[in-house]
Specification:
Its EC number is 2.5.1.39. The structure is a single chain. With about 300 residues, this protein is mostly helical. It has helices at about 1-10, 15-30, 40-65, 70-75, 80, 85-105, 110-130, 135-155, 155-165, 170-180, 190-215, 215-240, 245-255, 260-270, 270-280, 280-290. It has a single domain, classed as UbiA prenyltransferase (Tetracycline Repressor, domain 2), CATH 1.10.357.140. α2 runs antiparallel to α15 (about 270-280) and α2 (about 15-30) packs antiparallel against α16. The longest helix is centred in the first third of the chain and has 25 residues, at about 40-65.
Length: about 300
């Protein structure tokens, strides 16, 4: 059981839930929840949710694989540097998850499989090469989340041509989170935190624009208010005192709050019921975060 717990800990289960929320938001944008053909797409939805869970988990496992030497110094309690899981075991586990994610997406469509392969590629690129670059690293991580949203939209392939540009929004959001996360060990700069606040505001404005255009402004605002409270409360605290602990809390809140952002997308393009279904994942993610690290 301890071994299983260690493998789960490497996958960051609380984060995996947020990746499922991304895909469900994409499904909502594609129109599946509001076309009356939900039951016809149920298997595809489940496959895409399983796919993203595997892809995210595999990417995070390889984060620990490539950081094994650094973690001996900064995070010796992690599974690999502590010796509870060998580097070889972690590599096999991460590879299995990534391949499973691609195969599951391929059961939906070849386009979905290509998107899943793209997520795997950019996840490995981030972990191996771009992670420590101040701009390429956050951009790389953002691309993974942007592709994840497109993975959900790909449930109806034709929808990708119409809504592909929406991937820019999670790219910007995750760019900001990844940028400030660099300071969660040794502390960070207030400049990066202010930039993150600006980018958060831009993301919110984008969602409000589409909700206004789709006559869903009030419903969107109802969801965005707790979203903004969750991300800005710890961010403002980090701005006041940018020590590692405060920045870590801001990063954790930013990641988990993705679920509410995805719920806002769902209510903007679909129904309140789809949004509430996605928002219901938030308590699960928060509960998992009590047992498994988010960052």
């Amino acid at each position: 059981m301890k071994k299983i717990f260690d493998y789960l800990r490497m996958m960051r289960p609380a984060n995996v839930v947020t990746s499922v929320a991304d895909v469900l938001a994409g499904v909502a944008i594609a129109g599946v929840f509001s076309t009356g053909v939900f039951s016809d797409h149920l298997t595809a939805i489940l496959m895409l949710c399983f796919s993203t869970a595997c892809l995210y988990g595999g990417g995070i496992v390889f984060n620990d694989v490539f950081d094994a030497e650094l973690d001996k110094i900064e995070r010796p309690e992690r599974a690999i540097p502590s010796g509870r899981i060998s580097l070889r075991q972690a590599t096999i586990f991460g590879s299995t998850l990534l391949f499973a994610g691609i195969i599951a997406a391929g059961m939906v469509s070849s386009i979905s499989a290509l998107l899943a392969a793209g997520i795997s590629f950019f996840a490995l690129l981030y972990n191996k090469i771009s992670k420590h670059h101040p701009f390429a690293g956050p951009l790389n991580m953002g691309i993974c989340r942007g592709l994840n949203l497109l993975l959900g939209i790909s449930i109806i392939t034709a929808s990708l041509a119409q809504w592909y540009f929406l991937a820019a929004v999670p790219i910007v959001y995750i760019f900001s989170i990844t940028m400030i996360s660099r300071g969660e060990v040794h502390g960070g700069s207030k400049q990066n935190l202010y930039i993150a606040a600006l980018l958060y505001s831009i993301v919110t404005a984008c969602i409000l624009f589409f909700s206004y255009r789709n006559n869903k402004l009030l419903l969107s605002v109802i969801i965005l208010i707790p979203f903004l409270w969750m991300i800005f409360k710890p961010l403002l605290k980090a701005i006041q005192n940018p020590v590692g602990k405060n920045i870590g809390m801001a990063v954790k809140a930013g990641v988990i709050s993705l679920i509410l952002m995805d719920a806002a997308w769902a209510v903007t393009f679909s129904t309140i019921y789809a949004a509430l279904a996605i928002a219901s994942l938030l308590p699960l993610s928060i509960w998992l975060a009590k047992f498994f690290a988010v960052t």
